Amino acid sequence: MKNILIVTALMAGAVLGGCSKSYPSLYEVKGETFQSNQERTIAAAEDAILDALRFRRWSVDEKKPGEIIASLYKVDKETQEQTYGAIIKVSYTENSYSIEYVDSKRMRYNPEEGTIHNTYNRWINNLRADLGLAGY
């Protein structure tokens, strides 16, 4: 009986020790419809997106009609260096929007597997939720 427990413990240790941390699939928002009963305009859509980005502390890097490039980087308080972050592209019309991954720093993005650190996905989901509540 003691040998069975030892073998079981060794097998469990080998299985658990051999597991590497897996990351979730990259979350992108594609063709999400704005929820609103009001008359929609491209300017109102842009304003709603900019408000959501600012609320979540994203920096707007580029802005042109129908597209916004934004970045969010966390900064080390002592060194003032960017520790990790991401760049996204928000494409929009008066009726819908998409949020796409552009680049990241230390977010463990794996293009072959299409995975990224869950923090990125949380950031994107928060933006999607904020835009759903905007009701522009």
From TrEMBL:
Lineage: superkingdom: Bacteria
Protein name in UniProt: Lipoprotein
